[in-house]
Structures are given as structure tokens and as C-alpha cells.
Amino acid sequence: MHAGLSLSLCVAAVALTTATAQAPSSNAFSSSLPTQKIQGIPAVNPVSQPWIWPLPQNWERGTNTLKVSKSIRFEGKGARQPIVSKAIKRYQNLMFKKEDYPMIPYNWSTTDNKPSRSSLSTVVIDIKTNDDHLDMDTDESYTLTVPTSGKAVIQAETVYGVLHGLETLSQLVQYYPERKSYYVPNAPWKISDFPQYKHRGILLDTSRHYYTVQEIEKLIDTLSWNKLNVFHWHMLDSTSFPYVSKKYPQLAAHGAYTPRHVYTANDIKHIVQFAKERGVRVIPEMEAPGHSTAWGYGIPEIASCLNTQPYFGYTIQPPAGQLNIAHPKTKEVVYGLIDEWAELFPDSFFHAAGDEVIMKCWEEDAYITDHLQKTNQTLIQLFEKFALDMEDHVRQKNKTVMVWQEMLLEYHVNLPKDTVIQVWIGSEGVKEVTSKGYRTIVSAQNFWYLDLGFGRPRSNPYPEVQGAGFNHWNRVYSYDMRANLTKSEADLILGAEATMWGELADPNNVEDRLWPRAAAFAERLWSGYENPKGEELISADAILRLLPWREQLVLRGVRAGPLNQGFCTRNPLDCFQPPNPAK
């Protein structure tokens, strides 16, 4: 499969003995900020591509430097659309973030040193339709023009294209520390942009570790800045049941970690609306019938092998427990929850899971074995009927069903062709699913699982327990999910999701785990693998934009992890060199 690292990005050992920093005198900060002494940058950073993440499809730029008024106004009928007007308030703040001593100063030598006499003080917003419906097929395209004089213009078919245009405009604005002013370098700009893939998401597991509403909001904000448009909410799992059901409140009362670690219907409505105002869809996943221990704490009769010890052989990871697929109460509860979620989550996609079921759990359940004898069924027939009936109930709510790949490739369930299959076990699954004619969302764990590489999530203190490999940013960026596919198979890829499972991630470290690697993922989904001229988008160019974008995320309050040591952040061309073939 397509993987590997670009040799041009292998980091050679760099001798730093000749690099010296000009330190200010000890009392320099007491009176005024000293002139910054710069090591290498900006001279060695060519800014061959604009500092925009993800890279737009089409862009043209000039050589003029345009001052930006801090009292910039947004006008036009589109500026009064409710979602857009709220976004304008956010971007009037984001646009003017500053760092007096940036790790990566902009390379002002690439643009005219004498700013244009005019300044950018007005942006016109033109939307063709004020319809704010958001779904997979929503048009997210936009154009942005920034002249050297006059008004900038953002044009889009929908409000969501405008949101992307505002983000791009905010990234064009650069703070010039020595002049203590904001500028758009390399004006005029003409940008025409759209996403290559419709479905661009992040899965967050909030069952294994709980996230507050505010923490989820912060994630959604960061998704929108990276032009990602799906929040896949893995809310339920074996470990906890945090959803407060209207019909079955005992599920959360007994299945949540504490009364504080829950999500109410109002919480969900708030998050869905918050996400919509940032162009992000919220897709719920109802984990069933596997990974369902916590359901049984509130309604014991719907669970099999509940908390069986030792758990080995009954579950992938503790605690043991699956839904009892033979008990009539189980379907009643599952369908009742689907009904509630269908109203709370308006998106047309609904994830019905179906992954990692352990047959032994059911084979040793007396209720199930007795039912199989009475109905003359096999266990796999019972499982298939339960799964298909559950999915049909989802379809009755006018939803498109998503499931994990095991349903098709391991359990061989006869799924309707409108089912969307999420591939995760390995990149080879993309070929297997699309060759059968199914649409797919790609989450290949060997490239796009961002929670891996930190050891196995077990409490057992056994040194031989190994962890999976770490998917570093270039591995994330270099994966081509179209590899080995025919054109018709590649056309069945709706998009992808990078995942953050919760065994070893919680609100204290999740941002470092996600960013900026999820940004590398985001560019592949938005910008694609080639530009409109057919030229390959390569990591050797991307890193020169990803480094400053990571700094911008930090400036916006995201605890994004570093991509390299500070010297290489400031001087990437001195660090990113091919290895010495003689060694």
C-alpha cells in the first residue's frame, strides 16, 4: 500500500556550533521590546506556497503588501445572514491574533517592502442562497478576491462556503512585529476553492474518558479552522453510558461514571447547533450490540456476559458485556434510543456500529442458547437478524446507515447497498469494500488512527504487552487511500475520518495527540493529492506551511504538539535534508 516517508523530509543531524543567537541585554525588556534577531528565517523560507491550511485548489497572488485595518467592516446582504454574522464576530478576533516574537516570522522579503497606500477596510460577502441546511452534499465552495485597493469579496453558494472563505482570509492576514501592524502580503489575491472529499471528519470517543460540552466545543472550533466538516461522536461504549435518555433514564443513572459525567438532550442540541454554526455535521454512533457493558448496569436483562471475570475471551478489552440479542427488551430499548437520537441529531447519517462482537459471550448465555434451540437458528443468523433489524429501524428515520467494516468483511452480513462501510482494520479493507460496490469512509488504523503509538491500553503491568505504531504527521499526510483502486472503486470513497479513541486520551492530552497531525489529514481531504494542474502535493512543500499553521493553532489557544525542535521550526530548510547515503 502507498505509505513511506519522503526522503526529503528525513531529518539529518544538524551541527549547531555555528548558529548563534543575539541575546538582548539583561535590562532590554524593562524599557521596550528589542529588535528581534532572527536565525535564518525568513530568508531561508521561500513561501513557495501560501501560508494557507489546507492549501486552496486555485490561487493567484501578487507582490504588493496591503495594510489591514483593525476596524475592518463586513458588508453585503450575506453578512447579515445569522450564521455568517456570528462567524464575522469570531473572525474579527481571530484575524488579529499576534505574536511579537514569532517562532516563524513571515518572510517579508517575498512581498513589497513598501505597503500599498490603500488599506483593506471592507469585505463584501455575497451568498447565492441563505438556506442553512447542512449535509454531506452541501456546497462548500467559495471564491476570495483581495485587491490592492478597494474591497475584498467573498462569494459562495451557501453560508458554509462563506465560513471557509473567512477562515482563508484570516490566514492571509499577517502581523508584522517591527511595524506593529497587520498586513496581507503578496496582494492581490484570487482564490477559488472547494473540497475534494465531502466527508472530512474526526471521531472522538467520549465514553472511555468524558469531555465537557466546552471541551467538545473547542474541538469543533479547531475542526472548522482546518476545514473539517464532521464530528463523529462515539458517545457510548462498554465503559460508560453518559447519555441521559428520556425514556430510559436508568441507563445513565447506573451506567455513567458519575452524575456529572453525562450528556443531556439539551447538551446535545447545543453541541449540534454550535457545530452547525461552524459548518460541522455531528454524526452519532450507537455502539451495539458489542461494547455494550454499561447498558447492562441500568437494565441488566438486556446484557450478556455482564462483567464476566476473567474477561479474556469475552471481550476485546474490559469490561465484558454485550447486548443480549435474543431478549425482546433489548430491541425495545435500542429502538427507543434510536428514536430519541434521530430527533436530537438531524444529520442524515447515523452510525450503527456492529464491530468487535465476541461470539463466546453469547454462546455461554443460557437465555440465548435456549432461544436458538426454540427457534432453530444459528447464532450468526440471530446476530444478522438483530443487526439488520436495527439498521432498518434507523432507515425508517430517513437516515443513511454507517457500520464498521466487520459487518461486511468478517461477519458477512448481507447489507443493503446503501449502507456506508467505515474501514478501520487496515488500508487493504478499502479495496475489499469498494470492490463489492459499497460506499466507504476510510479510517485505516495503520495511517489515520491518531490515538495509537502510546502503548496498549491495559492496566496489567506486563512488559511484553506492546503498543501499535505511532502515525506521525508525514505518515498521515503520505497515505493515499486511492492506492490500488480502479476509478470506479475510488469514486465510492465519500471521505475519511481520523480517530481519537479514548483509552489513553482525555481532555488533558487530546489536543496534543490530535494536532497538528489531524491538520495533515485535513489537507488531504480538502486539497486532495494533486492540484488542478495535476501536480502532486508533496510533504516537502506541506511542511513549510504546516510548521507556521501549528504555531497559529497554538496562538489560537490549541495545545498542538511540536513537529520538531525549535531550531528546525525556525529553520526548516536547514533541517529537512535527505539522509547521507554513505552512512
Automatic annotation (TrEMBL):
Q: Where is the signal peptide?
A: 1-21
UniProt entry tagged with the keyword Plastid: no
Kindly state which keywords UniProt assigns to this record, in alphabetical order.
Answer: Glycoprotein, Glycosidase, Hydrolase, Signal
Give the GO cellular component terms, alphabetically.
membrane
In this protein, which residues make up the domain named Glycoside hydrolase family 20 catalytic?
197-528
Per its record, the protein catalyses: Hydrolysis of terminal non-reducing N-acetyl-D-hexosamine residues in N-acetyl-beta-D-hexosaminides
Q: Name one GO molecular function term.
A: beta-N-acetylhexosaminidase activity
The annotated active site, in chain numbering, is E356 (proton donor)
Q: Which residues form the Beta-hexosaminidase eukaryotic type N-terminal domain?
A: 52-172
Might you name a Gene Ontology BP term for this protein?
A: carbohydrate metabolic process
Identify the EC number(s): 3.2.1.52
Pfam families recorded: Glyco_hydro_20, Glycohydro_20b2
Domain of life (superkingdom): Eukaryota
- Which top EC class applies here? hydrolase
Give the record's family classification. Belongs to the glycosyl hydrolase 20 family.
Name the record gives this protein: Beta-hexosaminidase
